[in-house]
Amino acid sequence: MLKKHVIVIFSVAAFIAIVSEAQEPHVFWYKALLSGYALAENNPGPGIPSDAIVHEGMIVSATYSNGHGYDLPHFVVGSATGDWQAWSAAIWSKDLNDSAMTGRVDSAFAVGEVRDGWTEDSYNNTGPIHIKCGVVDVSFGISMWGRNEIPENTEWKDISFGTLNYTLPTIPGTDTMLSVDGLNGRLSVNMPSSLDGQFLRLTITKQVNYILANSGEFAIVFLVPSNQGSTGKFNLYADEDRNFTYEKTLINVNGSDNPWTEDGNTVHVVAYGDLTNGVAVQKKVPGANEDIHLNIAPNPFNPSTTISLENVRKGGNIRNVIFRIYDIKGMCVHAFDTPLSKVADGFLWKAANLPGGVYVICTHVGNKTLSKRVFLQK
Fold first, then answer.
1. Of the chain's two ends, which shows fewer C-beta atoms within 10 Å, N or C?
2. Residue 312: closest CA among 282, 283, 346, 336
3. Which residues, if any, are the signal sequence (predicted)?
């Protein structure tokens, strides 16, 4: 049952304080902090506010094509130029459906990074997409698994008996009609991707407020009809198992050439409002590598030492980190080109062939420059 609030405004400052509190951002993203995502990164990146509360419970994203008959753990919405595919999608959030999660939001969005691949045709194409967005009760399907036992990359048929298409009954009073323009993706398997690092969001405010106000297990669905003018299509990275691997063959490519994501897990919900914080939360959103540290141990050393970076965040357009080592005269004596995903583990610098003395190790990560002196004892 929705609560009625009466707000008396005593001053502009008080009004701003009330609005700021009511607009508290919440993010529902499976294992986002555990996976070390750079949530605050923007363009490319999701641009999550630094004061957002992060809820890491399970997310189920699923899709179904009425034309193909495919039931997949993906997130595809729309059709194609022939208007026959009719891809629909759904999202269920464990934490959003938790009985301890109550309140009301002023705005809410389903968000994900666009996946720009090619299989017979583009994963994304321009054109209008007519979407019926609503809420579906999936309590029986969730209870069969147990809400704490839902497997990663679950398909829609695993949590609901109804087919995920435009005829699926939604809860009365939860529907909104969304008009979305599809995006122009890669034009063939041999053409480069054109949507690298782009995020797409869909308004789900009405649906989220219904879930917050009612007990049960509810999924938000995005339903597209066949042959009704939906000639656009978009495809989002929705791999909750975090095992996505870029693959390209002579006829297929399964994603963008340079995406923000490294593991494919990007579908999430962002909500702004006054919610309870009773569900496993983390107040601090990690910044875009602003807390990164350069570690060197041992120091002093002879003949080798380990170089590593601490607090490196995954995601973004940074794929490799170049380390340069300079002697006291400013000459570069060595350079390492290391994958970003491996710098946290560290790598060994062997300096047996160099004279003893002071050296400076430098690197750049994004807009941050790091350097540290080391002493080679001989």
1. N
2. 346
3. 1-22
User: Domain residues for 324?
Assistant: 293-376
What's the one-letter identity of residue 110? Answer: A
Q: Which two tokens stand for residue 334?
A: 């060595």
Task: Look at residue 6 in the predicted model and tell me its pLDDT.
Answer: 37
**SS3 call for 340:** helix
Looking at the fold, whether 242 and 298 belong to one and the same domain comes out as no
Q: Which residues contact 246 (CB under 8 A, 6 or more apart)?
A: 254, 255, 257
Give the whole-angstrom CA distance, residue 41 versus residue 270.
15
pLDDT band of residue 90 (cuts 50, 70, 90) is very high
pTM of the model: 0.75
Task: Please return the burial class of 187, using the count of CB atoms within 10 Å of its CB with bins 0-12, 13-18 and 19+.
Answer: middle
Tokens describing residue 20: 């700021």
Strand (E) or helix (H) holding 210: helix 205-213
| Domain identity same for 69 and 196 | yes
Distances in Å between the Cα of 48 and the Cα atoms of 28, 39, 128, 329, 356 are: 11, 5, 28, 43, 47
Report the percent of the chain where pLDDT is more than 70.
Answer: 85
Nearest to 238, CA basis, from 354, 153, 169: 153
Q: Is residue 288 part of a domain?
A: no
206-237 pLDDT, tens per residue? Answer: 999 999 999 999 999 999 998 888 899 999 99
